[in-house]
């Protein structure tokens, strides 16, 4: 179908621009907001909304006025508090430019505070997964303060210190092991294996061992 025919087919169109406080500068976050809005719409209307950059667009063909109005109302209500939508793992990784390993490590040691957990069912599967979510304003503060660089420096220093301690412990164990071997080699022979002890001949002559 030609482009002008596609445009003509959708007479009912409305567009919203997502604010920076909602996307936090992340295209992954913007896509997550789109998926959240689609999940709130009736199943038949979910594909009617899409996103390009920060622009959300709801479009339906002429004759779908009732469905369009219902979907638009849901979207308008959802967008009122969209900047408070919890940040999910893949979004915070993109926003802060961090790896999955860093997110898990900082979450475990408390530097990255959790806002709770969320459980979802994987598409087409019976299995559910549970993951931590994060408060958008906390994530925004971390982004503005560039705190991630400080955490990486702390991790590098801790890693160096752990390696230094491990090397010291390994050296200490080798030293103790060598000292133990030297002690065994320098130990004197038992008395009954030393025939040259003073008074040994008289002791044998008197027959005290018989």
From TrEMBL:
Biased composition (Basic and acidic residues): 201-210
Region annotation (Disordered) ranges: 178-210
Taxonomic superkingdom: Bacteria
The protein's name in its UniProt record: Uncharacterized protein
Species this protein is from: Rhizobium deserti
